[in-house]
Specification:
142 residues, mainly beta, six-stranded antiparallel β-barrel, three-stranded antiparallel β-sheet
């Protein structure tokens, strides 16, 4: 009752010949995993994930350098869009987001839309939670 068995440091082999035990650091293992999936999440803070520019009063492009190059560009899933900051002045709620054709395995360019803002083409745009939430995942699963 309430017994359990714990085991660590085991390597399974195919066949009858053992190979040297593979030792990886946490950082190495994390980087290998991030080639397939990266998750970005900011809640209730005013931090920012990327910077770019406004194309109009309702759209902006923001770039993010990924911490690890992904296996392939893959797909993006948005859980919450966050907000756009115009010129360090005002935050505007984002209501649409999509990866642009400029994205690649180590850099993503996200086209963001909002209902309205005081922005003009060429204004600086920061993307972040803006006191709300921003969450999305990038997947390059096989």
């Amino acid at each position: 009752v309430n017994n359990y068995w714990q085991i660590t440091g085991v390597q399974l082999e195919l066949g009858k010949v053992a190979t040297p035990f593979e030792h990886r650091s946490y950082g190495e293992e994390l980087a290998l995993c991030q080639r397939y999936y990266q998750h970005f999440k900011q809640l209730a803070s005013y931090t920012r994930v990327g910077i770019g520019g406004w194309g109009s009063a309702t759209t902006a492009h923001v770039g993010i350098h990924l911490p690890v190059e992904m296996r392939a560009l893959g797909s993006v899933t948005f859980i919450s869009y966050g907000k756009l900051l115009r010129e360090g002045i005002n935050w505007y709620a984002v209501n649409s987001a999509a990866l642009s054709a400029e994205s690649n395995r180590s850099f993503i360019d996200v086209q963001l839309g909002c209902a309205s803002s005081g922005a003009a083409q060429g204004d600086v745009a920061w993307w972040g939670s803006g006191g709300g939430s921003l969450e999305f995942g990038l997947s390059a699963e096989l």
